[in-house]
């Protein structure tokens, strides 16, 4: 299990998809972008989950939050997909460290008129992904407002881990936000991790959700230890 202090702001930089990885892609027309391990993965019975985690995805409009969720869910990426209206809920089963986990992924619309709803939707969340576009500095400029909205109505003991995710592009020369600058910003806001993802190739998308899930598992383990300690002190 990865401890929060050991993550050191996960920074996985761009690496082109290797040719041998193409062998892992299905050939069917409707699923040519879906890796076999996702398409063939057996469903987990609902009563056999070890944990169910609510995850919120948030950030400015147009940073391709929906594309990130689509890629993680194993759906072909659609570049012209419409913006999320309000909130979009998706579910995915994953196995981390031998534990069956259900992720309820809440993709929150970034438009200004929906932001007053964010504190309500954030309640009960166990983890979050803040998304920005590495070639658009303005997509990172409102990070303090986003974090304030999320954290203001949540008690200290219910605060959850957040990872900052930069969406990469093929045009590296258009990059406006370096990974080093993003890490500095993340640390200064007490964000728990950082990664850059390419939703066109799927690079680092699985890693972002897996790292967040490990942090959520760590949180649950710490809470359980505290509860056991409190009960022990009663005797």
Strand order of the largest sheet: 2-3-1-4-5-6
Shape: globular
Rg, nearest Å: 18 Å
User: Could you name the ranges where pLDDT drops below 50 across 5 or more consecutive residues?
Assistant: 1-8, 11-42, 77-83
- In DSSP terms, counting alpha (H) and pi (I) runs of 4 or more, how many helices? 7
What is the CATH superfamily classification? P-loop containing nucleotide triphosphate hydrolases
**CATH classification, class level:** Alpha Beta
Distance between the termini: 31 Å
Mean pLDDT figure: 77
Walk me through the structure.
With 235 residues, the chain is an alpha/beta fold. The chain has a single domain, classed as Rossmann fold (3-Layer(aba) Sandwich), CATH 3.40.50.300. It has 7 helices and 6 strands, in the order αβαββαβααβαβα. A 6-stranded mixed sheet has the order 2-3-1-4-5-6, sandwiched between helices. Strand 5, helix 6 and strand 6 form a beta-alpha-beta unit. The chain is globular. The N terminus is likely disordered.
How does the SSE layout of this entry go?
Blueprint (H helix, E strand, L loop, with lengths): L35 H4 L11 E8 L6 H8 L14 E10 L2 E10 L9 H5 L4 E7 L4 H4 L1 H9 L10 E6 L11 H10 L4 E5 L7 H29 L2
Parallel strand pairs: 1-3, 1-4, 4-5, 5-6
Antiparallel strand pairs: 2-3
């Amino acid at each position: 299990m990865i401890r929060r202090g050991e993550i050191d702001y996960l920074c996985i930089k761009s690496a082109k998809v290797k040719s041998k990885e193409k062998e892992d892609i299905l050939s069917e027309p409707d699923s040519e972008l879906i890796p076999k391990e996702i398409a063939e993965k057996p469903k987990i019975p609902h009563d056999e989950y070890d944990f169910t985690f609510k995850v919120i995805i948030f950030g400015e409009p147009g940073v391709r939050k929906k594309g990130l969720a689509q890629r993680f869910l194993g759906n072909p990426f659609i570049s012209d997909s419409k913006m999320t209206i309000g909130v979009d809920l998706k579910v995915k089963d994953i196995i981390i460290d031998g534990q069956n986990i259900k992720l309820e992924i809440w993709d929150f619309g970034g438009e200004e008129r929906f932001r007053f709803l964010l504190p309500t939707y954030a309640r009960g969340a166990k983890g979050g992904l803040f998304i920005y576009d590495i070639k658009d500095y303005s997509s990172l400029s409102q990070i303090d407002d986003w974090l304030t909205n999320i954290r203001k109505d949540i008690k200290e003991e219910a605060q959850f881990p957040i990872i900052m995710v930069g969406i990469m592009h093929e045009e590296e020369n258009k990059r406006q936000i370096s990974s080093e600058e993003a890490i500095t910003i993340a640390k200064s806001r007490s964000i728990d991790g950082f990664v850059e993802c390419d939703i066109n190739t799927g690079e680092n998308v699985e890693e972002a959700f897996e790292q967040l899930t490990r942090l959520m598992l760590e949180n649950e383990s710490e809470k359980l230890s505290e509860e056991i300690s409190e009960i022990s002190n009663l005797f």
